[in-house]
Amino acid sequence: MSENIERRRFLKCLGASSLIIAPLGCSSIEEESDANKPHYVMVFDQNKCTGCGECKDACNVTNNLPDGKSRMIMEQQSGGVAGETCPHCGKKNCDCERKYVRVSCQQCKNAPCVTVCPTGAAHRDEKTGIVTMDASKCAGCKYCIGACPYDARFINKETDVADNCDFCLNTKLSKGELPACVQQCRYDALIFGDANDPTSYVSKLLRVKDSVRIKPGFGTEPSLRYIPIVKLGV
Amino acid sequence: MDGTIDFTMGLSQGIAWPWPIAVYLFFAGISGGALATAIFIRFYKKQTENTAFYKAAAIISFVTISLGMLCLVLDLTNPLFFWRILVYYNLNSVMSIGVIALTAYIPLTAIIALLALEDELRAIPALKVLMPVIEKLKAVRKPMEVMVLILALSVCAYTGFLISALIRFPIINTSVLPALFIASGISAGAASAKMLAVSLFKEDLHSQDMKLLHGAEWPIMFAEAMFIFMIATSLMTGNAGAQSAFAAFHTGEWANVFWFGVIGIGFAGPLLLNFATSKSFSHSAKAFYASGVCAVTGMMCLRLFILYAGQNFAI
């Protein structure tokens, strides 16, 4: 009996509050204009990455990067506890449990590099919203490198200007292809697509999978999402 | 950070802004500080002649800002790309706004120096061509001085805003930084202009201008110390990231630069020279130059500490 009243009251409140809140939500103009534009995101699945490094090689070849510099690197992280013996191999220092993390431009929605760039060389591509470089405008002041909370920008030694991962905007996306690293990955550890398109695989994936962003506290809203390793049998 | 993903490697390898930027911040601070002080005294005391201090400040501000620009350009990955900063603008960028301020400030400091050194230039026959120009510029001297006073303080403050926009460094990303840079710029700028006024333009050590400057020195130094204290306290009592950056004050070589350079030479030096010595020594030329050099050295150490310790402690 009392449960019934509770439910009725709950539904009443729900109806009333939705009447008040719904118009507020609909009146947001920004939301609407955002939805028309694509929001390209990349998902890195740590469970699937084996650290083979072929994504990096593919990126270097596609984007013609000089030796020793890359738009992305893989960081190997050990899950072991320092000073304790590994339960697998019995050694104190091991990397039995290997985890890899993709280190590259996070493609922030609120990108500090774009804000601080004095010349507008670090900018957002109008059509795709992807953060990219206009190398002909860059003065090489390195302000964007200092401003990036992810340390994901660098100076291309051949051109003397700043560089970042732009999801292969000019080398692949413009031809309708997927970014080079995504094409190369044999383990499906990288997924790329438009998060504003509800039918895209990325949208569906993000709906069902838990993913995290790196350093969300900076409020930069990265478009690169990570699916952390899932431990089995613990 | 429990249970989330993070990476510690970076692509840029090393700190983005090395020592030439610290030297630039130092020169820009001295330039703005010296000129702002001189013009402020000129307005305050309603001076119409070119005083020794005004001349010295005009020379210093023009020379230091030019040297600062040289540091800035040489620090670019390719100095030949410098023109791009002057051609393309992004008004969201502090640096771009600073460029606009500097493009007005630098020519104005040159004009102020020309007007201030009128008598000296007249003595050189080769520079006779400049005289009609100086005569014409005299007509707009007052508005130019008002403008350059505002710009000088803006340049000091801008160097603080420039680096405080770097959000990942708790020591650098503080709202007090522009105020600290104005205060330290004024104290070092005034000190260097004072030294030049006495050595080059034979200003009396105990003239009216010098007395006024000596009086202003201590409150400015107190403000500076307070701003540094504010930054340290906010880091010490802040979140984990801020607290980890507080280590910059007690560990590593930059802590030494802070304690010996900023606190020891910059603050304790002038205080001891003026208040812990006999009256005859503290009023001597030796003590005057020594405390001036202390103020300037302390300021350079402060810029180095903020820039290097700041970039070493990222979150």
Automatic annotation (TrEMBL), chain B:
The chain crosses the membrane at residues 21-44, 56-77, 97-117, 146-169, 175-197, 218-237, 257-276, 288-309. It is found in: Cell membrane. It comes from the Bacteria. The keyword Membrane applies. It is a multi-pass membrane protein. Pfam families: NrfD (PF03916). Keywords: Cell membrane, Membrane, Transmembrane, Transmembrane helix. One of its GO terms (cellular component) is plasma membrane. InterPro entries: Electron_transfer_protein, NrfD-like. Belongs to the NrfD family. This is Formate-dependent nitrite reductase, nrfD protein. It comes from Shewanella piezotolerans (strain WP3 / JCM 13877). The lineage of its organism: Bacteria, Pseudomonadati, Pseudomonadota, Gammaproteobacteria, Alteromonadales.
